[in-house]
Amino acid sequence: MTRNRARVTAVTALAGALALGGCGVSSNTAGGTPAALGGSAATTADDATPVTAAATGPTSGWGPAIWGGSGSGMMGGGNRGSWGPGMMGSGMMGNWWLTGDGTAVKSLAQARRRATEFADRLGLHVGEIMQFTQNFYAELQTADGHPATEALVNPADGAVQIEYGPAMMWNTAYGMRYGSQGQTAISAAQAQSLAQSWLNTYDSSTTVGDTQSYPGYYTLHILRNGQITGMLSVNASTGAVWNHTWHGAYTATSQQ
Asked: What is the C-alpha to C-alpha distance for residues 10 and 136, in angstroms, rounded to an integer?
């Protein structure tokens, strides 16, 4: 009960901060650009080639111009801004990110350790870890192994946060839509079909992988010749598609 109350407070604070920051976005508009579908085949390992360090951590507004604008490819919105504690000041919403410790994260094993420290705050554990040129991606799971939410690890300083995009805006258990009773009108099979139709518009050489069902939405890998090149999500209520354009090129994966 205490954790649920804290989560509600955190989401309320986040919503207010986004309103002040002008970071609103319509969840019914598909996003992404053809350029975002690129990437290269890579390996599966626990300690892969180091990624190029991105900008500084979320305490300074880490992330792209997330709600649209030049190159973001997210939902086609016109407003700009970055989600992160830099928008709200220190000490607020501590459950939604982990401040970097100043140590560069250069491997999947390091990223898993940082993601685990973050997941512990939410009573979750870490499943799949993926390495991209701009960040590390972490799937967070419930104790019984069900996908709960998604997180990013900043390679520059080890900062961890709930992933922006669908994980923040659509997640009905660990995002801004916490407690939402929105109907799950889209099945996993339908989500896969919608995602493939969206990809066909931009690059017919890409396909989608299996769906991972998160609270309120689905996430799928984008594949080219069977190799991962990116990710996208489909809203379980509206069928809207959101391309994860912030990762960069795919490098490697570490399973649970």
From this structure: 24
Q: Give the contacts of 167 (CB within 8 A, at least 6 positions apart).
A: 149, 150, 151, 174, 175, 214
pTM (predicted TM-score): 0.72
Query: pLDDT band at residue 95, thresholds of 50, 70 and 90?
Result: low
What secondary structure letter does DSSP report for 42? -
Q: Is 50 exceeded by the pLDDT of residue 175?
A: yes
In degrees to the nearest 10, what's the CA dihedral of 123, 174, 163, 103? -30
List of residues 6+ apart from 129 with CB closer than 8 A? 108, 111, 112, 115, 136, 137, 138, 139, 253, 254
pLDDT tens per residue across span 190-203: 999 999 999 999 89
Average pLDDT over residues 175-189: 80
Is residue 161 situated within a structural domain? yes
Q: Strand order of the sheet with strand 217-224? A: 206-214, 217-224, 227-235, 241-243
CA–CA separation, 112 vs 110, rounded Å? 5
**For 54-163, where are the alpha helices, taking DSSP H only?**
108-121
Mean pLDDT of 58-75: 34
Looking at the domain assignment, is residue 153 inside a domain? yes
Number of domain units in the chain: 1
**In terms of residue numbers, what domain contains 201?**
2-22+33-254
Alpha carbons 173 and 170: distance in angstroms, whole number:
9
Helices (H), 158-251: 166-169, 188-202
Contact (Cβ atoms closer than 8 angstroms) between residue 180 and residue 127: no
Q: Is residue 28 part of a domain?
A: no
